[in-house]
Specification:
The complex is a heterodimer of chains A (137) and B (258).
Chain A: E1 2-7, H1 17-25, E2 38-43, E3 46-50, H2 59-63, E4 69-71, E5 78-80, H3 90-94, E6 101-103, E7 109-111, H4 121-125, E8 131-136
Antiparallel strand pairs in A: 1-8, 2-3, 4-5, 6-7
Chain B: E1 2-6, E2 9-13, H1 19-25, E3 49-53, E4 62-65, E5 76-78, H2 82-98, H3 103-110, H4 133-141, E6 147-151, E7 154-158, H5 173-177, E8 185-188, E9 191-194, E10 197-203, E11 210-213, H6 214-224, H7 235-257
Parallel strand pairs in B: 1-5
Antiparallel strand pairs in B: 1-2, 3-4, 3-5, 6-7, 8-9, 9-10, 10-11
Helix pairs in contact in B: 2-3
The chains are: A alpha+beta (137), B alpha+beta (258).
The complex binds iron/sulfur cluster (2 copies) and FE2/S2 (inorganic) cluster (FES).
Chain lengths: 137, 258
């Protein structure tokens, strides 16, 4: 089964609930993680939630010389293997959408959207349904 | 698949997989210093030592570095015996003798009840434990800019001839992977210095934030066929660009609908 985010910017109020949901669902050592999703204003009072697009021919995967970024065949997400990462920041610099991030609260680890293992918290909590995780096909 | 026994529990593993990986997967914690998943195992620090035996060995046992030991059917493994405790303590004691100032080693030794080395401490020790994680990761990168060299009676990690390493691209992989944090670097404004070599950091063309070194970016562009433009802006500005692109699509769609 294939899933995809459906984003409706007209419904996004910029409330940042997705951001909170993401941070808390990536809590480790009792500290919330850095959110992997951000509602960003593209015009005054107009918002759109921005997160990793899990690209087919992903720049982050190509940029990692150490094999730390790989497609998860079950979730479809590109997952970062923390044990292989050496924090060279190549992926952070290479992603054309700026969606590989540094988590300052966790020892500057690199983080990116992992689709929460197949059930994205952000979409669950979006109060206006501007962000929905939908079955496609 | 093979069956092995770890601390009395039967565990399934893939033949040829390294014992340390199986032990970790079982949630068992043993100390290591030179192991990193991005590196081929090297068995340099010896801390990952475990005890192995087999039924047909008749009580005979041996100690192996688990990071380098491929599993095979019928292996019986112990990870936390009192002998192993003493072995690890001795290794840490020796490492600490050579690097008495290392906070990483001090902390590990504490866990074995060792507050300071029982040997003559080398007060000039530079905390390098000669695990070669740095040279190995630079090799994985494809650069091999640094290597172990002899300096007087001592082996140290250094660029060739102790000069600026010509092949270094300032990626910092070596500094980040070093388990005892020996390799230092500085980032000042748009200049990175590591191994005494200076690198220009790319400044985001929108906000000026420093990203990776230009040499590293050029290496990635060449090696991995990445478009050059990807490296012109920082992640923050690229997210805003994406939002604007998505916004433009929405506005267009509205126009069409109207
Ligand atoms: S920061 Fe980590 S995941 Fe990103 S390219 Fe470097 S090693 Fe790979
Ligand atoms: S910073 Fe230089 S020496 Fe260190 S891993 Fe990168 S290229 Fe090699
Ligand atoms: S982790 Fe096995 S010898 Fe260092």
């Amino acid at each position: 089964m294939k899933f995809q985010f459906e984003v409706k910017p007209s419904l996004c109020t910029g409330c940042r609930t997705c951001e909170l949901a993401c941070a808390f669902s990536h809590t480790r050592d009792k500290k919330p993680g850095r959110s992997r999703i951000y509602p960003i204003a593209y015009a005054p009072d107009k918002f759109v939630p921005v997160a990793c697009l899990q690209c087919d021919d992903a720049a982050c995967v190509k940029s990692c010389m150490f094999g730390a970024l790989k497609r998860n065949e079950t979730t479809g997400a590109i997952d970062l293997d923390r044990e292989r990462c050496v924090k060279c920041m190549a992926c952070v610099a290479a992603c054309p959408f700026g969606c590989a991030l540094v988590d300052e609260g966790h020892d500057n680890e690199i983080v990116k959207c992992d689709l929460c293992g197949g059930d994205p918290a952000c979409a669950h909590f979006c109060p206006t349904k501007a962000l929905v995780y939908k079955k496609i096909g | 698949m093979v069956n092995i026994t770890i601390n009395g529990k039967v565990v399934r593993a893939t033949e040829g997989e390294m014992l340390l990986d199986v032990i970790r997967r079982e949630g068992i914690n043993i100390p290591t210093l030179c192991q990193h998943d991005a590196l081929e195992p090297a068995g340099n620090c010896r801390l990952c030592m475990v005890e192995i035996t087999r039924t047909e060995w008749d009580g005979w046992k041996k100690y192996v570095t688990s990071c380098l030991y491929p599993v095979e059917e019928g292996l019986i493994v112990s990870t936390h015996t009192s002998e192993l405790h003493e072995i690890r303590k001795t290794i840490l004691d020796l490492l600490l003798a050579n690097s008495p100032h290392s906070d990483v080693l001090q902390k590990m030794a504490e866990e074995y009840g060792l507050h300071k080395t029982s040997y003559e401490p080398n007060l000039e020790g530079d905390n390098c434990i000669m695990c070669y994680a740095c040279t190995r990761i630079c090799e994985v990168l494809g650069k091999s800019a640094i290597s172990p060299v002899m300096r007087g009676h001592e082996k140290v990690i250094a660029p060739p001839f102790g000069e600026e390493p010509p092949d270094c691209i300032g990626c910092l992989a070596c500094a980040h992977i070093c388990p005892t944090n020996v390799i230092t670097w500085t980032d000042e404004n748009l200049t990175r210095t590591i191994w005494k070599k200076k690198f220009e950091l790319i400044a985001c063309e929108k906000c000026g934030k420093a990203t990776i070194s230009r040499d590293f970016a050029e290496y990635l562009i060449e090696k991995r066929g990445l478009p050059k433009e990807y490296f012109n802006t920082c992640d923050d500005c690229k997210r805003v660009e994406l939002a604007q692109k998505m916004g433009a699509l929405v506005d267009k769609a509205k126009e069409v609908a109207l």
